[in-house]
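S.,

Sequence below, as promised.
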Amino acid sequence: MIITILTFAIILLILVVIHEAGHFFAAKLMGIKVEEFGFGLPPRAWGK
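The prediction came back faster than expected:
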């Protein structure tokens, strides 16, 4: 049971990071200045 929950949480985290990276790269592609990259609550993963 615990393995199932951990697997679900890890897969969900990976999917959220990929989703947010899509926003990041789309903004960069459109020439929008991206000051930080994050997912969930602070602290941010990248930025000032």
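The helical segments are 2-29.

Coffee later?
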